[in-house]
Amino acid sequence: MADGRILNIMTQYNNRTVSVIIPVYNAARFIGATLESVLNQSYKDIEVVLVDDCSADDSAKIIAEYSNRHPYIIYHRLKKNEGAAVARNTALHLAGGRYVAFLDSDDLWCSDKIEKQLAFMDEKDAAMSCTAMDTMDENGNHLGAVRRVKDIIEYDFLLHNTMIATSTVIIDRNKTGNFTMPLRRGGQDYATWLMLMRNGSVFYGLDEVLTHYRILAGSLSSNKYKSVRQVWQIQTQDENIPRLSAAINVCFFIANAFAKHFLK
User: Residue 155, exposed/middle/buried by CB under 10 A (0-12, 13-18, 19+)?
Assistant: First the structure.
């Protein structure tokens, strides 16, 4: 499968279907609630594309129960564990919708998320958009923290602030062309947003909480160093940012992350 790139800028989809891209790996504990939040959307022209990265739990069984009741659910299981980038790229190839919306297998959407976001994109003539989100714990209890978004997020801003949360994103492939994500084990979402913005395109931010991001116990401290390393690698390797400029950007990233978590 190709590394991250825009495949065909001339592709045109004659529909307003939203293909919901969900990578799955040992998600049995949460995948039912996640699917419910998609199936309960007020916007009904959707398909759900789930790619299972060789889960060893009951994820496939739970998804099958939903697939039997909902014909617009597409399920595909990879032959070997290859990571979220390959799972998402496989889903992107299977997806038939003009719009692609990304959702992690443990996050939730508000019931009017797609409806409001598409109306917002129509108003702005936007190729890409994201929304604000709040946080919850493993049991779905809201933690109070909210990640806000700017009205317009440009390439240079994103180099020092990973404001765009994956489960909030919708992309219009009639405007961006088909694309694949860089084949990274981590950070492929951030790398994708930068890739799609290289030509001057921007993300439009709808500063309304329409997504609930689940924080799993013990995940934050271990992910901080990984996030910093991924930002450095993506900027220096994928984006060919000079090392000094990338180092400055990483310092801004660390400062912004500190402010988000400790200065609320």
Answer: middle
Position 105, amino acid? S
| Max CA pair span of the chain | 54
Q: Which residues contact 38 (CB under 8 A, 6 or more apart)?
A: 20, 46, 48, 103, 109
Measured CA to CA, the distance from residue 21 to residue 25 in angstroms comes to 13
List alpha helices for the chain, DSSP H: 31-39, 59-67, 84-94, 113-124, 155-158, 173-176, 188-197, 219-233, 243-262
How many C-beta neighbours within 10 Å does residue 132 have? 18
**Are residues 168 and 20 in contact, defined by beta-carbon separation less than 8 angstroms?**
no
Query: pLDDT 10s digit of each residue in the chain, 264 long?
Result: 446 777 765 678 999 999 999 999 999 999 999 999 999 999 999 999 999 999 999 999 999 999 999 999 999 999 999 999 999 999 999 999 999 999 999 999 999 999 999 999 999 999 999 999 999 999 999 998 899 999 999 999 999 888 999 999 999 999 999 999 999 888 999 999 999 999 999 999 999 999 999 998 765 444 677 888 999 999 999 999 999 999 999 998 888 776 665 433
